[in-house]
Amino acid sequence: MIDVMTQRPFDVRYGEGIAGSLRVPVDQLDEIQRVLDQNGFRYWVSEYRYSMKGGPEWTRIEFSHSVDPKAVQSALDQAN
Amino acid sequence: MKLVDEIRDLHLETCNDLRRVHDHFSDSTYAWEIVETTIVAGLTLLRKNAVTGTTISEQELAGLSKEFAIKQLRESTFQQFISIFENFYFDFLRLWLKAYPQSLARKSLSFQSVLDAADRDEIIHSVVNKELNEVMYERPAGWFVYLEERAKLGCPSIQAIERIAEAKAARDVLVHNRGLVGTAYVAKSGSQARHVAGERVDIPEPYHQEIWELLLSVVSEIADAAILKLITP
Predict the structure, then answer these.
(1) A73 touches chain B (CB under 8 A)
(2) CATH number at residue A19
(3) Structure pTM?
(4) Domain count across chain A
């Protein structure tokens, strides 16, 4: 899946001891959640919405520690 | 100053502190989001720390944004929420016990302490502080039993107390055990435990917000109940 704000594939960020997270344009939230739900990933959507210079809003999806970020990345890469 | 006014001031100060810390969390998270977005949009940089000599690129900085914004910032502000609440609880009890020192009439005190004290207020102050130091080492459930015994406010609810106990246990894990859950957390958290021993304690955003709201609400509930009790003839 392509991030409409960056025109690049979505990038699941994670680090040592830190669960995965995903920066998501609000306009694509439903689409992303559909993919995550279909794959049974445990996640929550931040209540915060961000924007720069009146541009499109984005938010953040965070995953449970039990979710493998690489599996999320793979699911997003395969989704249309 | 009257006890009612002192409790009002304490309530206001505590709510302001909780809001200030949450604003700091929200604003800092936003700042890190802007950093990451700007880097994703193409910003490049190479910054050197003049003191340590460490250099950092835009990609490393973007990686740090997650470490700081999501982990450290959330954990540190969560710990501050708990500290602010603890300060409220003990400051409230200190005010209450000083206003009603008769409730500590059975406490013993060395005669030397009496001789050393400048006046009656100083003796009361000393006994109250000694009493609160003992309460401090109890578990949160014990704190609220003590509050009810002394002030009889009928709040907070058992469910709120259990959630505060879990939050305090999570805070203890972060402060004393580098975030690694042990059996102490499980025992202190009871039915509200979110982890089993061996896991890393997690402070997800919804939980961070729920605890902030819970503490704000319990602080108001205690202050309002106390004020109502004091002004009702």
Answers:
(1) no
(2) 3.30.70
(3) 0.87
(4) 1
